[in-house]
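The protein record now logged underneath.
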Amino acid sequence: MHNPITAIILATLRKYPQGFNEYTLIQAIESAGLFDALDSNLDVALFQKHFLTMNALYQLQVSLWEEETLYLEISALRIHLDTGRVETNQIKSTAHTRLEGSTANNIKETLPEQSRNEALRSYYLDWSHYNSADEASVKQLLNSFWERFLNPEQRVTALNTLEISDNVPSPATIKQQFRLLAAKHHPDKGGDPDSFIAIREAYEILLPVR
């Protein structure tokens, strides 16, 4: 299930290009009102905040690497998007993985060595660890997140960022525009990292469920 917090991570990456810590990210999520519906028990809510945040981070880490060959560094003290060039052999390895049909299980074969903490990634990508909630209740919570997070202004901004004139574009149109602009502004091709992150953020906002 796609986690709406990924859009806030991208917005925070634009605000703090040198990186930020988990506490700063959680503050940004709280400011957006996405944690308002969590358990009233303080201890449970703290775990839920941490799990939802880490789940979104690892989802984004996998998708950015698999789709863009960009590495998102994740630790409690520093969250940072490495927009530097990737070694040729890593790019080839990633391209091969895409052709074979990449999954969360084999992403570790192409992620940079320093990020290969498979135990942590597997834990936070497994929704069964999110207390005793079943799939339906987790999905309902994520949907309520989107309702709180999205507003007409954000949607208009996202459409403008992707240069889409249609107010209700199809998923195919959104994906096509994202791929076109992402290729143009990709940091590994000399593009501006801030523009690329803004494009990715708009994509996450316009395609909340996929």
Observations:
- The first helix runs from residue 5 to 15.
- DSSP finds nine helices and two strands in the chain.
- The beta strands are 71-74, 79-82.
